[in-house]
Amino acid sequence: MTPAAVTAATVSAATSPALGDIFTDPFMRYAFIAGTAVALAAGLVGYFLVLRAQIFTADALSHVAFTGALAALAAGLDLRLGLFAVTIVVALAMGVLGPRARPDDVVIGGVFAWILGLGVFFLTLYTTHRSGGANGQAGVSVLFGSIFGLSAAETWLSAAVGVIVCAAILIMARPLLFASLDEAVATARGVAVRSLGYGFLVLVAVTTAEATQVVGALLILGLLAAPAGAAMRITTRPLEALAISAGIAVASVWIGLTASYLLPDVPPSFAILAVATLAYAGSYAGGRRVATA
Amino acid sequence: MSPFSWNLVADVREMWSIPLLLNAFRAGTVIAVVAAIVGWFMVLRRQSFAGHTLALVGFPGAAAAVWLGIGIAVGYYSACIAAALVIALLPAAGRRGYREESSVIGTVQAFALACGTLFVSLYKGLLGGPTALLFGTFLGISSTQVVTLVIVGSAVVAITAVIARPLVFSSIDPDVAAAGGVPVRTLDVIFLVVLGATAAEASQITGSLLVFALLLLPAATAQRLTARPGPGIALAIAIALVTIWSALFIAVYSVYPIGFWLTTIAFGFYVLASVAAALRNARRSVPTRIAAGALPAAGGVR
Question: I need a labelling partner for A176 at 20 to 30 A (CA). Which of A120, A127, A156, B99 fits?
Fold first, then answer.
């Protein structure tokens, strides 16, 4: 070891993070606030996604979020404008293409393959034509999130959006549950199945767009699918499952962020997803077998 | 290399005189044929989500291979095939439970991508970040890689040819097929592994995120135009070949990456075919293509 390397090693050992200091840095507080809001929204929305078998739709929307963010960057606009506008528009378009606001898997696959291709186009446009800054990293941070890089304003916006999504889904919960479980009977009883489908797609779009800044466009699917899948294995009662799903999502974010803080080599997105996946795997081992149709 | 001229034959001849580009065309041709054939069955079985996930799992495989210093192709094949086995074997009971299956697939996919980020951050010298692994590149395909593509591709096509008839039967009506003595469950597993190997092949040129340009879009385009298996598969191969050749040709002269051209050309064909099918249906008012709702979705997911 060279003397320089030894010094570097000692310094990094001396400043190695301790659990007690976790909230002294503002970036850590922001990460926890935004992460909790996103996790709550993802846990609740995810339960209905799994119930309605629309996970693939959410997957496609998260890829759309990537293109939206990079299109906005390439045009020199605020990244969030592109994120929210493009995901919501595409969510509604997918609803129009599919029967009863539930698009077909081939249509979803075809559309999002092309939209991802467009995303690469915007990424190239952005990295080659806009100078200055860490352009090369823009694509990577949109794909895999940058939860430790949130500003105060971004944090509060994420928190506000998360609270609005949670409130909306709780208001919609009863009719949406009815419409998801038995569409025909729900229609006969006068539930606005189609409007609920569109409303739900918009909520999915907002959740994905919001979560893109936190865990990244490619990884949000894990926060949507894993806690909900685990919750459905643990209980069949919808309200209980909703609560468990949100709980697992929030716990994943908290444990993941803490792990990533203690082990700086581990990216936060990986840690969060690893905890969520473990929870799902654990539900196979410990959860009671829930009969599926 | 000289700039683009309207003498296309001379352009192509010049491209093929460069070993790097010749390898890209060879690899692209093999991949297009294999992906179109397997993709046709994937669309029939409505397993696009599984196909997409298997391809994405290739990303951490390739990233880990780069980090460990072994060949990228090894990483793609082993990760994709392992993930196919996980998806095929994990929800052993309740096979028809779509909800269960789709949350398993979604979780496998997201966790695999998360592992990819971990490997990329552990291996700090990945040139240009993970962009080439995710969005494809036509540069850097070696002659040995082309040979591997041909060998694995032939095996995939051979297996698909052997199981083709029972596979079509069990995809269209799994219950009747099972009653008729077709081993539906075994076919499910074999097909997922075949799909995994195909996704690994295609990822090597399209990147993990854009495999649908060759795996889904040509097959979906063909199924819009004809429901018959033979002509449908032939048409899918033709569309895939035209797509990859024109995308490679344009990408050589363009600053934009090949993934953009591939998806745009393939999606263009799909839109044209959809319009043509809609016009034809409107005139005859007889459904000539496999309608989305008419098929019992066989182990597929929305």
Answer: A156
Q: Pick B12-283's CATH classification: 3.30.70.240, 1.10.3470.10, 3.40.50.720, 3.40.120.10.
A: 1.10.3470.10
Domain range annotation of chain B: 12-283
| Residue A133: count of CB within 10 angstroms of its CB | 9
CA–CA distance, A248 with A39 (Å, rounded to integer): 9
Cβ <8 Å between A105 and B49: yes
Please name the residues between 244 and 283 in chain B that touch chain A, using a CB distance below 8 Å. 255-257, 259-264, 266-267, 270
C-alpha to C-alpha distance for A24 and B15, rounded to whole angstroms: 59
Asked if A180 and A138 touch (Cβ cutoff 8 Å), the reply is no
- Inter-chain residue contact B97 with A223, CB threshold 8 Å: no
Q: pLDDT tens across A187-201, in order?
A: 888 877 888 888 899
At residue A289, φ and ψ (nearest 5 deg) are -70, 120
- Residue A216: phi and psi, rounded to 5, are 100, 155
**pLDDT for residue B209 is more than 90:** no
For helices B72-89 and B143-172, angle between their N-to-C axes, nearest 10 degrees: 20
Q: How far is CA A287 from the centre of its chain?
A: 25
Q: Does B120 or B220 have the greater pLDDT score?
A: B220
Q: Does B142 touch chain A (CB under 8 A)?
A: no
How far apart, in whole angstroms, are the C-alpha atoms of residue B174 and residue B180?
A: 10
Q: Which residues of B touch A278 (CB under 8 A)?
A: none
For residue B164, what are its two tokens?
Answer: 């083709």
pLDDT tens across A11-43, in order?
444 455 666 677 777 888 888 988 999 999 999
Question: Positive or negative, the Cα torsion across A53, A54, A59, A60?
Answer: positive
A202, A91 Cβ separation under 8 angstroms: yes
CB contact under 8 A, A226 and B103: yes
Taking the C-alpha atoms of residue B64 and residue B122, their distance in angstroms, rounded to an integer, is 9
More confident residue, B234 or A287: B234
Q: Which of A64, A56, A103 is nearest to A86 (CA)?
A: A64
Contact B58, B80 (CB under 8 A): yes
Interface pTM, i.e. ipTM: 0.78
